[in-house]
Amino acid sequence: MVAQALVAMSFVVLITRRISKGEPLATLATPVRFNDLGNLLLTFVMLWAYFSFFSIPADLVGKFARGNLLVYEPRARKLGPRWPWC
Prior knowledge:
By secondary structure, this protein is mostly helical. The protein has one domain (2-82). The chain has 4 helices and no strands. The protein has helices at residues 2-19, 23-26, 31-66, 73-78. Helix 1 packs antiparallel against helix 3. The two termini are 40 Å apart. The model has no long low-confidence stretch (mean pLDDT 77).
């Protein structure tokens, strides 16, 4: 969801920059407004990076709590005596 907001926000900034060269929007699309849009875009990037990075430890903690941290263990048990540590 954050990635979709990031793409939408970057699209809005690009389109606003493209159409701001005309006179009706030239007075509204000032460099201060583009700075604000860039700060909002940076906020979405940092939120996306936070969610992406911290989903990995949460996934590992959930697997550890359920007792299936090793994903390939059931396949290794089927192979028999070739895997003595299973």
